[in-house]
Amino acid sequence: MIDYKEIKETNQVLATFHKIDSNQLDGFISKHSILIGRYDEYVTKSYIDVKRHSDCEEANQRQHHVQTVIKPALNELKRHVSRIILQSIKDENHVTRLMRNRMNLYHEENVDLLIEEDQLIQKYLQIIGQLTDPTDHSKSIAELHGDLYDADESIRKQAFTLIYKAYVSTEGDITECLRSLIQNREHQAQRLNAKSYRELAFMKLGRLDYDAEDCIRFANQVSKHFEPLRRSFQQLQTKELKKSKLSPWDSFISPFSNHHDLSVSLHDLISGTERILNEVDPYFEKLFRDMCAKGHLDLTPRPNKAEGGFCESLPNSKSSFIFMNRFGGFDDYIVLIHEMGHAIHHDFSQQHLFFEAQTISFEVGEFAAMSLELFSMNQWTKIFSDERNLIQAKLEQFRLIIEFLPSVFIVDQFQHNLYDSEKNVDTFDEIFKRLVDQYETDLIDWSDVSDLKGKEWLRVIHLFETPFYYIEYALAQIAALRMYMQYRQHPVDTLNQYKNALALGGTASIPDTYRVAGVSLFPSEEELVELTDFLNAEIEQLVKQLNEID
Predict the structure, then answer these.
(1) pLDDT score of 261
(2) Which residues contact 227 (CB under 8 A, 6 or more apart)?
(3) Is the separation of the CB atoms in 428 and 178 below 8 Å?
């Protein structure tokens, strides 16, 4: 356990401070940013431990202590430091803008609600962390994911059904958990006199440059321009599978290749990622090697390990930790490189002294990760010796990106419905199902598992952990595709722009950070047309190359 006495005494001292002299400001910021970094890392490591070992009583007790004692004290410390800095300086910039926004989010009566919110989130994580294959409790849910890539449809269907059966078996508890979270969050908003929790969530996420209407408009624009590409890929899938329509368990089956049959050991994954990163930028490989040496990778699934993947910043150690569940196929490379994009971003941001300047918005964080995925495509020769397999893998990468976008809009709009009392009149399943019908093409047939349609929300961890965090994936993905378009023509200049944008950390607004990278947060109609034209040309060229080889 970390020494709680230090942070408690610091808070008592700072409570009596109002402002400090300008010649003492740098020292004040440095001293307290180091302290905050140490406690932030302790909180993060506690979270990581629970995700890695959901059945560990010691880890769960430590997490409870973090939620009820450490985090409230840490948040109080951050408020004191921010208040003193704001009272001591006259300059206004993006960091002070964010600080004032966060100061406005505090209400003493919400402290207990925030603790309760953390405990409800932890309850959900414990529920899903203990889910296993209903037919073999020695296997985790994550271990079933590999079967979704199997050429045998009966195996894919069984895996899909078992995954959802596991979640549905705890649907009552998960539903109760989400309803309690919605009620808790609405109470938080009421105490801060916010119009709705959605308004409060946007403030908490630092969304000072766009609103809910921008999200809806963006979803409609992108859907309009990308649906033709998506339909063409799905038609190729139906042809490959010799089916008139696709089933929901067919989404990972490539119409181009069986490269998912590529067996990727843990050693292959690490060594291959090293080679790819070295080709993109040797410094990126160095960071990865350092993380390996520090034991900051947990890549393999096991019972009582949570699903999913993430990369967390460790500010005190000047490092990051990557958590994922590899399944032994090619996509493991994509996931690991994505998470390394976050780690690289953390490294660049950790160069800033002030803790607020190290804070990364989700929109920029996902942009960093998704751009690195696409930059890495030119280096996949380090994995594939066969040119045919290389081309097929690139086509599949484009297909999966385009397939992913509608799911982002579904989850985003689902959240808008959850926190709107006029729209949240149906069951969660009914709301989700309606959005699936709105954003899915008519080439997906759920008739064999109609009872599972609309259950997807059970698995969306963001609904519980980070409400309203999801549209960022689409904003970042479109921007990353535009970065790739530039990278294909000017790789050196584009990579430099990318690094310059990441180095800003939290010192610039989201639109300004994107601008430094050479892209826009909300692309115009003309920019979307240019992007889809580029993607069509890239895909056509790759298909042509594939046909020439065949």
Answers:
(1) 54
(2) 441
(3) yes
User: Full-prediction pTM beyond 0.85?
Assistant: yes
Distances (CA, A) of 171 to 135, 167, 179, 345, 462: 18, 6, 12, 37, 17
Say what the alpha-carbon torsion angle 263, 267, 269, 270 is, to the nearest 10 degrees: 180
Tell me the pLDDT tens digit for each residue of 210-237. 999 999 999 999 999 999 999 999 999 9
Q: Distance between CA 309 and CA 338 in Å, rounded?
A: 10
> Which amino acid is residue 396, in one-letter code?
E
Please give the span between the terminal C-alpha atoms of the chain, in angstroms, as a whole number: 61
| For the chain, the helix, strand and coil percentages under 3-state DSSP, each to the nearest 5 | 70, 5, 25
Cα 336 from Cα 329, distance rounded (Å): 12
- Give the span between the Cα atoms of 500 and 226, in whole angstroms: 29
Span 412-467, pLDDT tens digits? 999 999 998 776 667 999 999 999 999 999 999 999 999 999 999 999 999 999 99
Please give the structure tokens belonging to residue 376.
């890495």
Neighbours of 99 (CB within 10 A): 21
Q: What is the mean pLDDT of the chain?
A: 94
Element (H, E) at 319: strand 319-323
Q: Which of the residue ranges 133-142, 176-185, 319-328 would you say has the lowest mean pLDDT?
A: 133-142
- In the block, which residue shows the tokens 């259950």? 455
| Residues 25 and 88 sit within 8 Å (Cβ to Cβ) | yes
Rounded Cα–Cα distance for residues 391 and 386 (Å): 9
Handedness of CA 225, 452, 449, 142 (dihedral sign): positive
Q: Decide if pLDDT at 257 tops 80.
A: no
C-alpha torsion 525→530→531→536, nearest 10: 130
Q: What is the spatial distance between Cα 237 and Cα 246, in angstroms, rounded to a whole number?
A: 8
* Residue in 215, 180, 175 with CA at minimum distance from that of residue 198: 215
Write down the pLDDT at residue 423. Answer: 64
Q: pLDDT at position 384, please? A: 87
- Please give the distance of CA 180 from its chain centroid, rounded to a whole number: 24
Q: Are 511 and 523 in contact (CB under 8 A)?
A: no
Amino acid at 257: S
The pairing of beta strand 136-140 with beta strand 132-133 = antiparallel
* Edge-to-edge order in the sheet of strand 310-314: 297-298, 319-323, 310-314
